[in-house]
Design goal:
The complex is a heterodimer of chains A (520) and B (827). With 520 residues, chain A is α+β, with helices and mostly antiparallel strands. Chain A is 29% helix and 30% strand. Chain B is mostly beta strands. Among the domains of chain B are: 12-153, Methylamine Dehydrogenase, Chain H (7 Propeller), CATH 2.130.10; 160-325, YVTN repeat-like/Quinoprotein amine dehydrogenase (Methylamine Dehydrogenase, Chain H), CATH 2.130.10. Classes of the chains: A alpha+beta (520), B mainly beta (827). Chain A: This is U3 small nucleolar RNA-associated protein 15 homolog.
Chain lengths: 520, 827
């Protein structure tokens, strides 16, 4: 004896954006806090140690913000002209910044005046960074040179003049204290080893390099320039791994998330894209109001800070994790009754009494099982089902039609229910997946309630709405057919056999939809 | 080796008569010309009692001896059987067709049968037949006395009342009761006018076992309970109404407290108390109920269904078990398909299901729910059912097409199922709604054994004048649940003709699609139209490619009775024959093609190779029915066929399905050989679970065979033959009749021991041990075995029969001597 088979609700694959783990993760931020800076924000750097303050370089100032502060908790403003690239040291106690006048200043987090000044560049210094041994600083300037400085003596250790244009970005290796890289507007990224006199590797990016990034392992290098983000394998001698072209304007900044699993890139096209570092596919993207210049992510992805060209600092905090204390409490008896006995192996002398598994059926299924057509239809015309899962309503209507009881289920309803039915039909009849069923339903409704037309203003209004919806859809389909005709003439001019086959196929898919909708 | 015989298989319809429970938990059923004996507890077919020459129409237990059974048949004989042993005791020849049989206990030496009235068509009478006593086995029973005239032909239309005091017969709207003692005949009639759409016609009648009460079922679903029918005027009846369609059968419980009724709704209804209308239901029994019968102790009841199924139900109305063979659906739309994995025959089963029917064991392996919707048993509903089925070459993919019965706007669904190794069943992979705008006419997979699953292509042809090519697409999303899905790759058409058939060539490079009168051949790589063939009058009915050496031929059969063979290399017609071919079926394992023609009420079989127009084998008058479908089922091992004429039967066996849903095959074996199939015995041995003991046994046997080969002398089968009957007996006896295991153990062990004159038990163990060591040292002993083979060949040359041990064997024996045998003492 077979059990009752519930009504099959046809699940349609959702078109458009698919909800993935990533979408859920990256959507979990609160509404952003906007802070106005004095000029374009060219660098944001998080302190590597708690409480994870971050330094924002904009115009001639460096502001230090606390985690949730709206106002800067500290400001370094000893710059005559614009400051660039304020960067924390690994221990979070020193801060280095370049400036428009070519000097590099080193600040203690506690003090106000610079501890050291490194003079040597003749042009503005746009990039500064600490090597991982903490005692040296590298810098790159508009004088095409990349320099290495000793912090204690404030002297230049070595100067490389290999770039042929402005050096605008760079970063130091975390695994080797002697290695750093700089990217320049001459389309190259160069890898320097402090122990040698010249660069050890040159990578041709193909566009002015705006940002470079080394993976924590030091094996992969990411460079951004033009519309491209390129990933290189350093250990293989600078081989191109993948080239990403997901922005439609220059990519200005790069950043890794705390786990190293996702790569973020910000661009002048106002988007931040998040890539998976395994597949290099875009898994999520953020939209911002204006072009993005700088981007930083705090440890544990708690905060995303984005700096814009118009001087706005956009700070997003992560929503606190919702704790489900209540559900945990509920689960306790469930364990006792359901889980506890699961693993119990019956012994030989035990007498087993098996309890039949109770199948849970939806309300409409229970009613359909006992052939109560009208009530089953009532059950799926409840607003929550009708609004959120129209496919259930339509599936039950189809089942009733299949059983030949749809007419009797639709008949004998009062004004309110007819209104409800017609609202649903008028709204959903144009959806291709429901059309075939709802056209039948609309047919039957008009058939049944034809004699009472004119007695209720509400029902009459709904009938008119239905007529309007169908009329619109027919016009729309006619237009589509016209477009299809135009496309067909285009395809007819194609000569390559294989291509025509493919297009033929596509156009056929379109006609299918049209034909299903043409029924009324 | 006689002539080829047409053998019916898959069991006949079980619908001849009500099933009968014997006193000791056997169930007896009339099945075609046979009476089948089932065990209620194990669902097994225990015995098949054959002897009647025509359909068995009635079976009843002998009321005076519960170990005997009467059976009546259309061939005009009543047979008395000892059903425990399956032996016919007596045969009584009545002379005219017998349509029903009743054996009330009150009648001393006579039984009641329904026979057609002489001289009048469609009029039947109930007669009592005096069964003559005599020592001979075949007796004449000519003493007939008419009891009632103008009765219904079905056994459901007559019932005998309590203690055989009266007999009730229903026909149309008339009920007649005949009282034997008083010789009184009362007639009652219902109005013939159909009130409120009701139909008063009687459909069945039963009598209360203890009271004077008659229950009748009606065509409009009502059940009437008649009382006081001794009086012509003051009779009363009460009505029970639940069924919405005809009541097919009724049955009272043994005490008469409950009444069971069943009908088209396939719901068994139990009425407790006629006044309060209290009732219980057992719904969704699968198919309309034809007969209901109760066991004599009231513990069980069983329902016979129209699709050849028996359901056994407990007294508390719980489903107990079902006995099912080949389910006979109304219309086999899917064709006969062979599952490459199980070699089972696949066809429509229950509505919306696909049945996998094992030919070897004559039972259903499993039933796959394709439509996955509740089937409503109601006349006039547009049900959706399975119409096309195709398997990929390895059986990993299954494609099914289901459509609703509506003619104009069929609700089509194409489903692709993947065989999951974990669950050992097919799982739905892709569902495509409306794959074609009109009915799908044919569907095939590209059969390619060598290439992997990546090259799988499915082609469907439709009446919407296109054929579509479906390919597997890898899902790029790593988080998706399944890695592949199917999508349309190419749509082809030819001058807007309806596509009717499709077929891939053996290597998969060419696809032939027939469009009405034309066959088109397409390249499966580029989907270019390569060439077209046409044989003008008539549409193409079937096409297929030749196989193996004949792969350059394309065979087609047309509506106007032509069988054509085109050569693909020259693109010319090779030969054609004037035959009205209904079925064209290539054998997947050889070049042979079977064609079944239908001409003036007989089907003929032609087997031919495409490269020569003269058929290899012709069987005229295969059967009287029209053969609709055919399939070649590959044999497990090639059959030994002596006659050259039947060589085409060697690798696979043809099966045919007629329009009356009879499954037939061709066999060279005689009936007795066929009844004890060797495969069944083999299957038992193979299905032994792998226990240390079975391994031991296996090694032992293997070693014996090995020994025979090694020594080049005939094997001494003596001990094995000794051992095997006991073991086989043990394995073949149903578990429920076996004595306790402790009792059997000693017999079993003894049967395995080798008698003294051959070898001691220890020696056997030695050999086993040797075998295992041999296996271990297999790799480094390869050169030795080679030498060994040389030795034996040498010995054979000399014609020596003495067994000399080779050096390596001596070495091994020495090794064995050192090993420990203390475990044997455990025996």
């Amino acid at each position: 004896m077979a059990a009752y088979k519930p009504v099959v609700v046809q699940a349609c694959p959702k078109l458009g954006e698919r909800i993935t783990q990533d979408t859920l993760y990256w959507r979990g931020y609160k509404t952003p806090v906007q802070i106005k800076e004095f000029g374009a924000v060219n660098k944001i750097d998080f302190s590597p140690v708690p409480p994870y303050n971050y330094a924002v370089t904009a115009s001639s100032r460096i502001h230090i913000y606390g985690r949730y502060s709206q106002e800067p908790i500290k400001t370094f403003s000893r710059f005559r002209d614009a400051a660039y690239c304020a960067t924390y040291r690994d221990d979070g106690r020193l801060l280095a910044a370049g400036s428009e006048d070519g000097g590099i200043r080193l600040f203690d987090i506690g003090g106000k005046a610079p501890l050291r000044q490194f003079e040597g560049h003749t042009k503005p210094v746009h990039v500064v960074g600490f090597l991982s041994d903490k005692y040296r600083i590298f810098s790159g300037g508009d004088d095409y040179s990349s320099n290495l400085w000793d912090i204690p003596s404030a002297t230049e250790i070595i100067s490389y003049s290999e770039h042929t244009d402005y050096v605008r970005c760079g970063c130091a290796s975390k695994v080797n204290a002697d290695v750093f890289i700089t990217g320049s507007y001459d389309h190259t990224v160069k890898l320097f080893d402090a122990r040698t006199k010249s660069s050890v590797m040159t990578i041709e990016h193909g566009h002015p390099v705006e940002s470079v990034l080394l993976f924590p392992s030091g094996g992969l290098l990411v460079s951004a320039g033009g519309r491209y983000v390129k990933v290189w394998d350093v250990l293989k001698g600078g081989q191109l791994l993948v080239s990403l072209k997901n922005h439609h304007k220059t990519v200005t900044c790069l950043c890794l998330n705390s786990s190293g699993q996702r790569l973020l890139s910000g661009s002048l096209d106002r988007h931040v894209k998040i890539y998976s570092t395994t597949s290099y596919k875009v898994v999520h993207s953020f939209n911002y109001a204006t072009s993005i210049l700088s981007l930083a992510l705090s440890p544990e992805d708690e905060t995303i800070v984005v700096g814009m060209t118009n001087g706005v600092l956009n700070v997003k905090h992560r929503k606190p994790e919702e704790k489900n204390d209540k559900s945990q409490k509920k689960r306790q008896p469930a364990y006792r009754t359901y889980v506890k006995g699961r693993t119990y192996m019956p012994k030989q002398e035990d007498f087993c009494v098996s309890k039949p598994v109770k199948r849970v059926l939806r309300k409409y299924d229970k009613l359909l099982r006992s052939f109560q057509s009208s009530k089953a239809l009532d059950a799926v015309l409840e607003p929550p089902i009708m609004l959120h899962t129209p496919e259930v309503t339509v599936a039950v209507m189809q089942e009733l039609h299949r059983r030949g009881t749809l007419r009797s289920a639709l008949a004998g309803r009062d004004e309110k229910q007819v209104n409800l039915l017609l609202t649903f039909v008028a709204r959903r009849v144009i959806e291709p997946r429901f059309t075939s069923v709802l056209v039948t339903v609309a047919d039957i409704i008009t058939d049944i309630y034809q004699p009472v037309v004119g007695q209720s203003a509400i029902v009459d209004k709904q009938f008119l709405k239905l007529q309007e919806a169908i009329g619109k859809e027919i016009d729309y389909q006619e237009e589509l057919l016209e477009v299809l005709g135009m496309m067909d003439t285009l395809f007819a001019t194609f000569t390559k056999k294989r291509d025509t086959c493919l297009e033929e196929n596509k156009s056929n898919g379109l006609t299918e939809i049209i034909e299903t909708n043409r029924n009324y | 080796p006689g002539a080829l015989r047409v053998v019916r298989c898959g069991g006949s319809a079980l619908r001849g008569a009500r099933a009968v429970f014997s006193a000791d938990s056997y169930l007896l059923c009339a099945s075609g010309d046979f009476v089948k004996v089932y065990s209620v507890s194990t669902e097994e077919t225990l015995r098949l009692m054959g002897g009647h020459a025509d359909l068995v129409t009635g079976i009843q237990l002998n009321p005076h001896n519960h170990m005997q059974l009467y059976s009546a048949s259309l061939d005009g004989t009543i047979k008395l059987w000892d059903f425990m042993d399956g032996i016919p005791i007596k045969t009584f020849t009545v002379g005219s067709k017998l349509l029903a049989l009743y054996t009330p206990a009150s009648a001393e030496d006579s039984v009641f049968v329904v026979i057609p009235k002489k001289g009048e068509r469609d009029t039947f009478q109930l007669v009592s037949v005096k069964l003559a006593k005599g020592a001979r086995q075949d007796l004449e029973a000519k003493e007939l006395s008419v009891v009632l005239d103008g009765v219904g032909a079905s056994m459901k239309h007559i019932a005998f009342g309590r203690e055989g005091a009266y007999v009730v017969s229903v026909k149309d709207v008339h009920l007649q009761v005949y009282f034997f003692k008083r010789k009184l005949l009362n007639r009652f009639s219902l109005s013939t006018v159909k009130t409120k759409g009701g139909d008063n016609h009687f459909s069945c009648v039963v009598c209360h076992p203890t009271e004077d009460c008659i229950a009748t079922g009606h065509a409009d679903g009502k059940i009437r309970l008649w009382r006081n029918f001794h009086h012509r005027k003051e009779y009363t009846y009460s009505t029970l109404h639940w069924h919405h369609d005809i009541v097919m059968d009724l049955a009272f419980s043994v005490e008469g407290t409950r009444l069971l009724s069943g009908g088209v709704e396939s719901v068994l209804v139990q009425w407790h108390n006629e006044s309060s209308c209290q009732k219980d239901f057992l719904p969704r029994l699968g198919s309309p109920i034809e007969y209901i019968s109760m066991s004599s102790d009231g513990a069980l009841c069983c329902t016979l269904h129209t699709d050849n199924r028996i359901t056994i139900i407990n007294s508390n109305l719980r489903f107990s078990r079902s006995i099912q063979g080949l389910i006979k659906s109304r219309d086999v739309k899917t064709g006969l398909v062979v599952d490459p994995r199980t070699k089972a025959l696949v066809l429509n089963g229950e509505p919306g299901h696909l049945q996998f029917y094992s030919l070897q064991s004559d039972q259903q392996l499993f039933s796959l729910d394709i439509v996955q919707r509740q089937y409503i048993h109601q006349a006039g509903l547009k049900q959706s059912d399975l119409v096309k089925v195709a398997f990929s070459a390895q059986g990993t993919w299954l494609a099914t097409v289901e459509e609703s019965e509506e003619v104009t706007d069929p609700e089509l669904q194409l489903k692709l199922w993947f065989y999951s190794e974990e669950t050992q069943s097919f799982q739905l992979n892709t569902r495509i709604n409306t794959p074609h705008d009109n009915h799908i006419t044919d569907m095939c997979f590209r059969d390619m054994d060598e290439l992997g699953d990546d090259s799988l292509i499915l082609v469907t042809t439709g009446r919407d004048c296109v054929f579509k090519v479906w390919v597997m697409v890898e899902d790029t999303d790593p988080e998706a649940q399944q890695s592949v899905s199917w999508s349309c790759d190419f749509v082809g058409s030819y001058h807007n003709y309806q596509a009717t058939n499709c077929c891939f060539s053996e290597d998969g490079s060419l696809l032939a699609v027939s469009f009405e009168e034309t066959v088109t051949v397409w390249d499966s790589l580029t989907w270019d139209l390569k060439c077209t063939f046409c044989h003008p009058p008539g549409n193409i009915r079937n096409i297929c490619f030749g196989r193996l050496t004949c792969s350059k031929y394309l065979i087609g059969a047309t509506d106007y009775g032509f069988l054509c063979c085109w050569n693909l290399l020259t693109c010319a017609l090779e030969w054609s024959a004037h035959l009205n071919i209904v079925v064209l079926q290539p054998d997947p394992l050889s070049e042979h093609i079977a064609a079944v023609s239908w001409l003036s009420k007989e089907s003929s079989l032609f087997v031919f190779k495409p490269n020569e127009p003269r058929p290899i084998y012709i069987q005229r008058n295969l059967c009287k029915e029209k053969i609709l479908l055919a399939a070649f089922v590959p044999r497990d091992e090639p059959e030994v066929i002596s006659s050259e004429k039947y060589l085409w039967l060697r690798k696979s066996q043809p099966f045919f399905l007629t329009d009356t849903q009879e499954l037939m095959t061709l066999s060279t074996k005689s009936l007795e050989e066929r009844l004890t199939p060797s495969s069944k015995q083999l299957a038992v041995e193979e299905s032994l679970p792998v226990t240390p003991f079975s391994l031991l046994l296996g090694k032992h046997r293997h070693q014996q065979a090995q020994e025979a080969i090694d020594l080049g002398k005939p094997v001494v089968h003596n001990k094995q033959e000794q051992a095997s009957p006991a073991v086989k007996e043990l394995l073949h006896t149903p578990a429920h009749v076996l004595p306790s295991a402790s009792f059997l153990c000693t017999i079993f062990i003894n049967s395995l021991l080798i008698s003294k004159e051959n070898k001691s038990a220890e020696e056997v163990a030695d050999e086993v041990e040797m075998e295992s060591e041999k296996a271990e040292d297999d790799s480094d002993e390869e050169d030795v075995t080679e030498m060994e083979q040389e030795d034996t060949s040498h010995m054979e040359l000399l014609g020596e029969t003495t067994c000399k041990l080779s050096k390596s064997q001596e070495k091994e024996l020495r090794k064995i001597r050192k090993t420990d045998y203390s475990w044997i003492s455990a025996f």
